Amino acid sequence: MAGLSPTQLRKSNTDYFLTSGDKIRFFFEKGVFDKEGNFLFPPENSINKIGHALHAFDPVFKRITHSPQVQELVKSLGLEVPVVVQSMYIFKQPHFGGEVTPHQDATFLHTEPLGRVLGIWIALEDSTLENGCLWFIPGSHTGGIFRRMVRVQTDSVGITSFIGSEPVYEDSRFIPTPIQKGGLILIHGEVVHKSELNCSAHSRHVYTFHIMESKGTNWSQDNWLQPTPELPFPLLYT
């Protein structure tokens, strides 16, 4: 990153993100680099997440994603031809892991019809109020979506832009969801959720991935994430 102008750096970061759907890449917290691109903190304490194709290219996460337990759970929900669209390892670093503002996953992973995307969130460490557990607004999955992030193709890769705006949510509407290590949370694609800054001395590692019921579903061509010849969305059931 040394020698890049701010505009070049933003474009480089955007390209890195937009081409990560069929790769395993590293994403860092804000403010961890100086102007020359050097780490201001130890790299192992600076990373935000790894994504977005762990489910395809890392044997450990591939085995977890396609495990009999996950397949049985998804079948019990009635999904017939689910595919895996992305996966992430999220660190939520102690004293440093940033907040995730209120959002709906369908903002970023849009389908027609709606209601076809499901997040599977597995706690690899205890997720507590202190280290940034998830918070949800009960019933918010029934109200549609308010904002979409779309890819705008201005060059070989493109940029992202938002359509619509996220409402301002009252804090009192959110319910915390602490969960012990090994627990699993299912996240409806339209439910509003967030997590707070990790102010504790303990990390909150998570493996999470999203699946889509592909039967009768159109994946939006405007989504930032698209299947590629190198990695079509793999079937969950094997």
| Derived structural class | alpha+beta
- Fourth-tier CATH superfamily name: q2cbj1_9rhob like domain
Q: Could you estimate the helical fraction of the residues in percent?
A: 10-25%
Number of helices: 4
Q: Largest sheet, if any?
A: 6 strands, antiparallel
* Order of strands across the main sheet: 1-2-3-13-6-11
> How would you spell out the order of helices and strands?
HEEHHHEEEEEEEEEEEE
What is the count of structural domains?
A: 1
Q: What would CATH call the class?
A: Mainly Beta
**Binned strand content:** 25-35%
Q: Could you name the ranges where pLDDT drops below 50 across 5 or more consecutive residues?
A: 1-9
Provide the CATH architecture.
Answer: Sandwich
**DSSP summary, beta strand count:** 14
Based on CA inertia axes, which overall geometry fits? Answer: globular
